[in-house]
Amino acid sequence: MEKKLKITREFIERMPKTDLHVHLDGSMRLETILELAEKQGVTLPDGADTPEKLAKAIHMGEICEDLTDYLKAFDVTLSVMQTEEALYRAAFELAEDNALEGVKYMEVRYSPLLHTEQGLSFPVIVEAVGEGLREAKRRYGIMTGQIICGIRHITPESSLRLAELCVAFKHKGVVGFDLAGAEMNNPAKDHREAFYLVRNNNVNLTIHAGEAYGPESIHQAIHIGGAHRIGHGTRLREDGDLLNYVNDHRIPLEICPTSNVQTRACESFESHPLPFYLSYGLRVSLHTDNRLVTDTTMTDEYMACVEAFDLNIGDLRKLMINGFKSSFMPYRKKRTVTASACAVFDALVAEFEEKQGAVAIRGPRVAQEIAIQKASASPNGAIELEPYSGKSGVTLKDAEYNLAEASNISDDSKKPSKKNEKVST
């Protein structure tokens, strides 16, 4: 029997990745918060003057009572994010941290409304974040976009102002609008004017829904808000009809497993609906949510899912493709970058197969589950899966250019696409 490829942390670090759901104010470095607090004269809670004390003060990586308890950490981070310098640094360091672990495209979200305590205007805030992201692109080649957030528990008029800001910065670094914050007693329908303005100006829309509240929150996000993606969607499994609608219309779910456990949206990592969503065919991708507060990275999220759900190479490839396909990049650029990511991924698999003297299981999880079901009905349980041919994949030769080159292209594509180019779906 052939030896099966072991998915290692090194493999996951090197594979191309995306992070489409990551909050700027929840993803700072502990050392940066301490330095900015000292420089700005900000007093941190509980005498948090060391990284260890600060981590404890913000419940870093700890299971919280609920989402509201989890969100208290943001009072700390926001206290030092009220200057252009701080915003620039936070954005640059977040993009740098992502780039150093193989993330090729990131969409960072935040609400400018929460960074105005010292008089910064909305445009200045967006430009400061944008400059930090551009500097990271210059140094590391990482592609990024900003998502402006309205907030559920703040007035709908405030969300409308932020939607206007989002429209003004369309094509200037901002790629979408979001509604974040606690769902309980703060329905998305109250912010419908902001959603209408965004959609009417052909701007992408993602909405936090189904995290701490039931599937009716997702229903509102889609049918009243008109969301193109759903943030979390953990409780979608409670409504089969809506689940099928989301699946049929290929509405992506931004899955954040570790965060969902920390906020008690899920009882445990093992009970998370990700493997069910993946096997059912939903377009799901992995994200960090808050790298600092949740104490995670994209590599950590992938590795945890591999260990908890026994994901194989085919599953990783599918999740990776879903991330690139669900992004708010323009279609032609997205198509090229996805093809390049597939080529890099497949070459990496071949490298690790040779290194380990093993064979990767490339069939998607749904194929594995069908085989298991057949095996359970077979007298001897001996059902062999057909080996994955790789014919639907993209080779390095097929890709127009690699990710490093793609990240430096400002428009959709300056090269003609190849007629025979294929991307697995």
UniProtKB/TrEMBL annotation:
GO biological process: adenosine catabolic process; hypoxanthine salvage; inosine biosynthetic process
UniProt key word Cell membrane: no
A GO CC annotation given for this chain: cytosol
Gene name of the record: add
Protein name in the entry: adenosine deaminase
Cofactor field: Zn(2+)
Domain of life: Bacteria
Pfam families (alphabetical): A_deaminase
Enzyme Commission number: 3.5.4.4
Organism: Bradymonas sediminis
UniProt similarity note: Belongs to the metallo-dependent hydrolases superfamily. Adenosine and AMP deaminases family.
Gene3D superfamilies reported for this sequence: Metal-dependent hydrolases
Gene Ontology MF terms: adenosine deaminase activity; metal ion binding
Keywords per UniProt: Hydrolase, Metal-binding, Zinc
